[in-house]
Structure formats: structure tokens, C-alpha cells
Design a protein that fits this description.
Number of strands of chain A: 4
CATH class of the largest domain in chain B: Mainly Alpha
CATH topology of the largest domain in chain A: Cytochrome Bc1 Complex, Chain D, domain 2
Distance between the termini of chain B: 16 Å
Largest interface: A-B, 87 and 99 residues
Strand order of the largest sheet of chain B: 1-2
CATH architecture of the largest domain in chain A: Orthogonal Bundle
Bound molecules: protoporphyrin IX containing FE, fe (ii) ion
Strand content of chain A: under 5%
CATH superfamily of the largest domain in chain A: Cytochrome c-like domain
Number of helices of chain B: 17
Radius of gyration of chain A: 25 Å
Distance between the termini of chain A: 89 Å
CATH class of the largest domain in chain A: Mainly Alpha
Oligomer: heterodimer
CATH architecture of the largest domain in chain B: Up-down Bundle
Structural class of chain B: mainly alpha
Largest sheet of chain B: 2 strands, antiparallel
Order of helices and strands of chain B: HHHHHEEHHHHHHHHHHHH
Number of domains of chain A: 2
Helix content of chain B: over 70%
Chain lengths: 309, 465
């Protein structure tokens, strides 16, 4: 068969090769592209605002995708760690998709609203001040790069996104860091977070801390606290990005709450507008359900010890 | 003879350029590997991990890889067509344009101009440059083959033709984008569709840059350096057609468990498993060729490079399909396992094979012998050890990472925080830097050997004249 004309005629050979190469291409790439299946869009999905788009541009410019993914797989432990798994319709406005392929850092598909803006700024400025062993580079220098509103407007036009002149005017004086934070806060927000209220129902938690006053639990809580909480609530619980844990207010109202309310808040995190015992949340407290029940109780023991209770 | 001389200088130009870009890419790789355990080695804005990572991958895939492919393909083309290149001046221009493009590519990536498509990071003005480079290459490839003085087209020419055709289709389609400024564009495709197009491209960049052109080299230089003909021509034919057919179906194995429609994932996994067959077709062909006389592994240093190279190709093409299985993917995807896998292919298969071709070509061009087989052997062992250390440490890290990420307590909660898992990687990441250093020293021996061979060749030529 090697003597056939095919192996003597380079043009014929190239044509046949092209056809062979195109078969798989058509079936797995061109054909699906022609179907609505490849262009899904969630109902709640919004176009990026100029500031958010500028932030997405910075994300691409800095190659964050080399360390971070933006897609949660529908696997039990992955949903536990990062939140609701990713839906096809979330990415309609992403040119290109930024799912990534390496998790040197954690997945960011559900980062929007997970932390307050202040946390994001401080973390970009110095990730190691939050997690001593983080290998994420510092990005505080981005605040020295001012956005060029005309550029961003051109980008909005290229993508055909709608915007108001005010949105462009808003960019004056804003930096790449401001934009990046705005982008972080919108990622994954088109999927409604599992409502804290729903989770509460399955939380059949003891009304009193079973580890109350236990020195071992306090020691363990202290360590957990310095790893997870002190960046926001201060080294001694005095407050910072998050409110003080040692004053006599809880969620901005005088009067402390019970152990199980502490447990629930730490377990579920908070969302702006939700109400707990008649107190309205402002949001920004991340959920720590992944720590597990015992460790959360250890934290409560430690906070109580800080309060001198 | 004189025409060959001019073209040989072009070939040599490509080879030396490719080595130069290889050094740049490897040095950047070393810095990257250090940044992963020492973030204080980030120097913003140009030398932060995120920007450097793409300089590394592009520098090596396009600078070292494509540079070597252009040069060595031209060499093969002339021998198998029994004539000089049809357009020698164009080939020389090709060389200069290539170096200009890679230099600009590096600068643009340092500057953060990045399309964020893996292996297609370059912004649109450079994409146009790449397409021009490719068209020039195609013109010389087809022109020279059409005007050849040998009736049959040998296997290597099939692989070169397939490379030219497939890369053209892949590169152009995936780089279709909406320009939004001189240095900024957005992928024409969005969301899941963008992902599907990108990985159709991305996996086949592996197929048609790190596989088919390297197989062209393997099929030409293995028989040349051993003096033994390829074991089975029939096997070559079957392996060739099934490889180029199957590759294009498999891109979605990079998107397992993502929101991409399941049927595309499943189809990709099935074809990925099938790919073992044609891949091993070439491996078997290589083994049986040398199987006629295994003593060549000892007596001919080039055989060692080629056979270990194809062995790593064989390991890669079993590991890759295994990785695509859902049960395996859920464990090792997104972990350090993947760089472990990648570097066995790039440092083992690609770089070893390319180095062996260069060892063969440079003395031929200067009509002399290699400067030192001993140095070549030291080079061989160092890159082998460096590469194995790299891959093995990263496999261990990857499995550990994957296992700890999904470890749960009896009450169903996660056992480890992200940071707890990350901090366990540090010793391995440090070992990887050591592995990289060993590999780099090996490459320095290689460069020294080539340098001395050229010096020897020049002295000989001067003495003759
Ligand atoms: C001294 C030698 C080398 C060192 C130290 C090195 C180091 C690295 C590092 C640290 C990464 C990033 C891994 C991560 O994000 O986890 C990487 C990725 C990569 N390197 Fe290298 N490398 C070396 C040689 C090479 C060579 C010779 C090639 C190709 C010819 C190559 C091709 C790649 C590719 C394609 C990737 C991307 C892998 C992925 O996306 O998973 N490297 N390398
Ligand atoms: Fe692949």
C-alpha cells in the first residue's frame, strides 16, 4: 500500500491529512458550537461593569490563571471546600473562559462576596500576613497603576457590553488594584449561595458547648484562631476587618448571644441582609463548616476564654 | 554542494537560536520553581510568577521547540528530497523573522500581554507574525517536496506535512479574537465554548508540536545514526493515520468534570484511550528497529538518546490516557502531578530527541566528528536524572495533594484546610529546583559539546582552505 499515489504526491497527501484531521474537529468542536448547548446563560448572569472588566483584564495580565482555577467540579469534597459546583451558564460573558488547570492556590469560582473588600486589599498587599506559608506573590504595587478610562471603554465596546457614561467616569483615579478587587467580588455571584437559613435546619447542634472551659480545646482553638481568624478579628479578638469579639456587642447590637449562635455564625458565615436573632448582618464573614464540628466548638471555647467567660 | 552549504547555515542558525531560547526558557523555569517555595523571589512587575510562567512555556514550546522543528525539518527535507531547499533565501528570512518574533513574544509576555489561553497566550499582532512564519515554512516544505528527486515520500515527510497542515488549522481557529486595542484582544468564543475550542487546540499543540514533528525526527535520525532500517513500514503507515485521526477528538480530556457537556468529555476520553495504540505503534517500531542489535545502545551514544526518548514518549502516552479516566482525573487534575507528566514529555522525549538530532547534524554540517562522546554521555545521564527527579517528586506531590484535598473526617467534614495541604508541598518543590539544576547542568554540557564541535569544524575548514 505504500506504493500508492498517496505517498508520492505531497498535495494529495496534505489534502487527505486535512480531511482526516477535520473529522474529529467537526464532531467535537464545530458541530457543538452550532448548538445552543454550548451557549448557555444563567438568568441572573449580568454583563461585567467597566470596573469589573478592567479587573478581569488585570487578572489575565498577571497570569493569575497559572495558579488559580475558576471551576468547581461536582464532587462532594470539592463542593464542601469551595461551594456550589460550577454551572455552564455562568460563563457566558467570559472571553475567554478562565477555568485554569492548576491549583497552586485555591479555586476562585466562589470568591465573590466571600470576604469584605478590605480583606481583599489587605490580602493582595501581603498574602503572607494572612497565611505565613502562602506562596502567592504580593500585588500591592497594582495600586500605582491607574486605569485609563478610554482603554476600558474600548474594551467594553469590543465585547458589546452595555454601560453608562457615568460608569466610565467612575474609573477616573481608580487603580488596577481597585479593579481587581471589584472583579473578585463579582466572580461566581450569578449562582445563588445556598441560603444560610436552609443550612441552619440541618444543623442539629448542641445548645451548649460540649468543650466549655476545656484547656485542651482552648489551646486547639487558639491555634485555629491564629490560622483562620486573627487576620480579620485581630490577634486578641479586638477587631479589624471584622468586628470585635470581646466587646459586649454581637452583630452590632448590645448584648451577647448564646454558644450555639456563635457556632452557627462561624459554621455558616454571614450574608448581607440576613437576620440572626433580630440582628441584621452586613456580610463578609466566611463560612468555616469545613473545619468540622469539634474544631468550631474549640474556637468558641477560645473566644469565650478571650472574653474572660 | 554549494547550495547545500547555504541551506546548512540556515539549519545551523535555527539550531543555535533554538538552543539560545531553550537556555532562556530553562533559566526562567528555574526561577519559577524557586518562586513556588520562596515568594520573596517575585520581582514585580515583570518577574512575578504569573507572568513568568507563560514566558517559560512559550519560550520552550515556541523558542526551543518550534526553532528546532524548523531547522531540523529543513535538514530532513533536503536529505529526503535529495536537493537543496527550493527557496533558500526565504528560509534565511524565515530564520531572522523567527528570532524577531520570539524576542517580541518574550517581551510582550513579560509586559503582561496575555490572551490567557494556554499555549496561545500571544496577543493578536504576534499571532499574525506566527501565521506568516508558518506560511513561509509551508511554502518551503511543499515546494521542496514537490521538486524532490526521490520518488517515494519517506515517513518523516508524512509527519512534517501533517504538522504543517494541523498546526495551521489549530492555531488560526483558536486565535480568532476580537481586537480591543493594539495589544489587547478577547477570545471570539466565550464560556464553555471558549473552553472547548481552547482545549481542542491545547491538546493538539501537544500532538502536533511535541509529537508529530519529533516523530519525523525520530523516524529519520534513528535509522541514520544506527544504520538499521525502520522495523516495519506497514506499522508506520497504520500508526500515522490512526494518530492524526484520533488526536483531534481528545482535547476535552482537559475538561473532565467541568461544565462542558458530558458527551464531549466522554467521547474525548474514549479516543484518548484509543490513542495508546498509534502512539505505541511508533514506540514498538523504534524498539524493534534497535532490537536487531541491542549492542548499539552501548556502542552508539545517539541510539541511547533516541531509545530513551521514545521510551519516555511511550510512558507519556500510557500515563496521559490513564489521567483522562474520570476516577484518575478527579484525583490528580489541578495538582502538581500534571507538571510531573508534562516534563517527562518535554525534558525526556522532546529535548532528548532534539539534542540527539543536533549531535548528528552539527558534525555533518562541518564534516567532522562530535567533539566528545564522553561529554555527550555526561549530558545524557544528567538530563535523565534531572528529568526523573523532577517527574517523580511532582507525581508524589500531586497524589498527596489530591488525596489530602478530598480527605474527610468521620463526620463528613474536610480534614485539611487548603493551607495545610499547600505547606506539605514545600520539600518537594525544593527538590524540584534541585532536579531542574541537575537538568540545566546537563544542558550546559550539551551546549559546550556543540560549541567545541563547531570550533573544531571551523578549524578544519580553515586548514583545508
Ligand atoms: C530546568 C528545567 C525546567 C524547570 C526547572 C521547569 C520548571 C517549571 C515550573 C516550575 C512550571 C510551573 C509548574 C506549576 O505551575 O506547578 C513549569 C511548567 C511547564 N514547563 Fe517547565 N521546567 C523546565 C524545563 C522545561 C522544558 C525543557 C520544557 C519544554 C520543552 C518545559 C515545558 C513546560 C510546560 C509546557 C509547562 C506547563 C505545564 C502545565 O501547564 O501543567 N519545561 N516548568
Ligand atoms: Fe492532553
Amino acid at each position: 500500500m505504500a506504493n500508492s499515489a498517496l505517498y508520492k504526491n505531497p498535495i494529495l497527501f496534505a489534502v487527505v491529512t486535512t480531511v482526516v484531521v477535520l473529522i474529529g474537529t467537526v464532531v467535537t468542536m464545530f458541530y457543538p458550537m452550532m448548538t445552543p448547548e454550548m451557549h448557555p446563560k444563567l438568568e441572573g448572569l449580568k454583563q461585567y461593569t467597566p470596573l469589573q472588566l478592567a479587573g478581569k483584564d488585570v487578572y489575565q495580565q498577571e497570569g493569575c490563571v497559572g495558579c488559580h482555577t475558576q471551576t468547581v467540579r461536582p464532587l462532594k469534597t470539592e463542593v464542601l471546600r469551595y461551594g456550589e459546583y460550577s454551572k455552564a451558564g455562568e460563563f457566558f460573558y467570559d472571553h475567554p473562559f478562565l477555568w485554569g488547570s492548576k491549583r497552586t492556590g485555591p479555586d476562585l469560582a466562589r470568591i465573590g462576596g466571600k470576604y469584605p473588600d478590605a480583606w481583599q486589599y489587605k490580602h493582595f498587599e501581603d498574602p503572607q500576613s494572612f497565611f505565613a506559608e502562602s506562596n502567592m506573590p504580593k500585588y500591592g504595587w497594582l495600586k500605582n497603576n491607574k486605569l485609563d478610562p478610554a482603554d476600558v471603554e474600548a474594551h467594553m465596546k469590543a465585547l458589546g457590553f452595555t454601560y453608562q457614561p457615568e460608569d466610565i467616569a467612575l474609573l477616573n483615579g481608580k487603580s488596577e488594584l481597585d479593579a481587581l478587587v471589584a472583579y473578585m467580588q463579582v466572580i461566581g455571584t450569578s449562582v445563588k449561595k445556598a441560603d444560610a437559613g436552609d443550612k441552619k435546619k440541618d444543623l442539629s447542634v448542641e445548645p451548649v458547648n460540649p468543650f466549655k472551659g476545656d484547656p485542651k480545646a482552648i489551646a486547639s482553638g487558639k491555634e485555629l484562631y491564629s490560622q483562620n481568624c486573627s487576620a480579620c478579628h485581630g490577634v486578641k479578638g479586638e477587631g479589624g476587618i471584622g468586628p470585635s469579639l470581646i466587646d459586649d456587642e454581637f452583630l452590632y447590637v448590645k448584648g451577647d448571644l448564646k454558644d450555639d449562635d456563635y457556632f452557627e455564625l462561624i459554621n455558616n458565615g454571614t450574608q448581607a441582609g440576613n437576620v440572626e436573632e433580630g440582628r441584621t448582618m452586613k456580610g463578609g464573614m466566611p463560612p468555616y463548616a469545613s473545619l468540622g464540628r469539634d474544631k468550631i466548638w474549640h474556637l468558641v471555647s477560645y473566644i469565650r476564654s478571650l472574653q474572660g467567660k | 554542494m554549494n547550495d547545500y552549504h547555504y541551506d546548512n547555515q540556515t539549519v545551523k542558525g535555527f539550531i543555535l537560536s533554538s538552543i539560545f531560547w531553550g537556555v532562556v526558557g530553562i533559566v526562567v523555569g528555574l526561577l519559577l520553581s524557586i518562586q513556588m517555595w520562596s515568594p520573596s523571589h517575585n520581582f514585580p512587575p515583570f518577574f512575578t510568577f504569573g507572568r513568568l510562567r507563560v514566558v517559560h512555556t512559550n519560550g520552550l514550546a515556541f523558542g526551543l521547540g518550534i526553532g528546532a522543528i524548523f531547522g531540523i525539518s529543513y535538514y530532513i527535507l533536503m536529505r529526503l528530497s535529495k536537493r537543496p531547499l527550493l527557496f533558500p533565501k526565504l528560509a534565511r528570512f524565515h530564520l531572522h523573522l523567527f528570532n524577531a518574533a520570539i524576542a517580541l513574544a518574550a517581551v510582550s509576555l513579560f509586559a503582561g500581554m496575555n490572551q490567557s489561553l494556554e499555549y496561545a497566550e500571544l496577543e493578536w499582532p504576534l499571532d499574525i507574525g506566527v501565521v506568516i512564519l508558518w506560511v513561509i515554512f509551508a511554502v518551503n516544505v511543499f515546494g521542496t517536496i514537490i521538486k524532490r528527486k526521490e520518488e517515494q515520500m519517506y515517513i518523516s515527510l508524512w509527519y512534517i506535512i501533517a504538522t504543517v497542515v494541523a498546526v495551521a488549522v489549530l492555531y488560526i481557529v483558536n486565535n480568532l479574537s476580537i481586537p480591543a486595542g493594539l495589544f489587547k484582544s478577547y477570545h471570539l468564543f466565550s464560556g464553555v465554548n471558549s473552553a472547548n475550542v481552547e482545549w481542542w487546540y491545547g491538546h493538539n499543540a501537544v500532538g502536533f508540536i511535541f509529537t508529530t514533528p519529533i516523530l519525523a525526527m525520530f523516524y529519520y535520525f534513528l535509522p541514520k545514526s544506527t544504520g538499521m532500517p525502520i522495523y516495519s513500514h506497514r506499522l508506520s503507515i497504520i500508526a500515522f493515520w490512526s494518530l492524526v485521526f484520533a488526536y483531534l477528538w481528545t482535547g476535552a480530556h482537559h475538561l473532565v468534570y467541568t461544565p462542558l457537556p458530558d458527551w464531549i468529555q466522554t467521547l474525548a476520553i474514549v479516543f484518548t484511550i484509543f490513542l495508546i495504540a498509534p502512539s505505541w505503534g511508533s514506540v514498538v517500531n523504534g524498539f524493534y528497529t534497535v532490537g536487531a542489535d541491542w549492542s548499539k545502545m552501548r556502542t552508539n551514544y545517539l541510539t541511547k538518546f533516541f531509545i530513551w526518548g521514545i521510551t519516555f514518549y511511550g510512558l507519556q502516552t500510557v500515563q496521559g490516557p490513564t489521567q483522562s479516566l474520570r476516577v484518575v482525573s478527579q484525583l490528580i487534575h489541578y495538582t502538581d502531578w500534571v507538571p510531573g507528566h508534562v516534563h517527562m514529555g518535554t525534558m525526556g522525549w522532546v529535548t532528548m530527541t532534539v539534542a540527539a538530532c543536533i549531535y548528528y547534524i552539527i558534525p555533518k554540517i562541518y564534516d567532522t566528528e562530535i567533539y566528545s562522546e564522553k561529554v555527550a554521555n555526561i549530558h545524557f545521564w544528567l538530563v535523565l536524572i534531572g528529568q526523573l527527579m523532577f517527574s517523580i517528586t511532582m507525581w508524589i506531590t500531586g497524589i498527596q495533594q489530591g488525596a489530602l484535598w478530598k480527605a474527610v473526617n468521620p463526620d463528613g467534614t474536610l480534614k485539611y484546610t487548603f493551607m495545610e495541604v499547600l505547606s506539605k508541598n514545600y520539600p518537594y518543590w525544593q527538590l524540584r529546583t534541585v532536579a531542574g539544576l541537575v537538568f540545566t547542568v546537563g544542558m550546559l554540557f550539551f551546549i559546550y559539546n556543540i560549541h567545541m564541535t563547531i570550533r573544531k569544524g571551523k578549524a578544519l575548514a580553515a586548514a583545508k582552505a
